[in-house]
């Protein structure tokens, strides 16, 4: 039935957009970013005194 073809394309487009959004959100929230505070807590800060000529 050619009258139903636009609904089929619309449902496929909605389906693929939803799958795309779900996969992107899973990828974003499952990736663990290294925190900046844990890197600096182990290191001591070195203070540099500049000597001008």
UniProtKB/TrEMBL annotation:
Subcellular location, record wording: Mitochondrion membrane
InterPro entries per the UniProt record, alphabetical: ATP8_metazoa (IPR001421)
Keyword Iron on entry: no
GO biological process, one term: proton motive force-driven ATP synthesis
One of the Pfam families matching this protein, by short name: ATP-synt_8
Superkingdom of the organism of origin: Eukaryota
Spans through the membrane: 12-33
Swiss-Prot/TrEMBL keywords: CF(0), Hydrogen ion transport, Ion transport, Membrane, Mitochondrion, Transmembrane, Transmembrane helix, Transport
Keyword Cell membrane: no
GO CC annotation terms, alphabetical: mitochondrial membrane; proton-transporting ATP synthase complex
GO molecular function: proton transmembrane transporter activity
Topology versus the membrane: Single-pass membrane protein
Self-association state and partner proteins as the record states: F-type ATPases have 2 components, CF(1) - the catalytic core - and CF(0) - the membrane proton channel.
Family from the record: Belongs to the ATPase protein 8 family.
Protein name according to UniProt: ATP synthase complex subunit 8
Protein's organism: Mylabris aulica
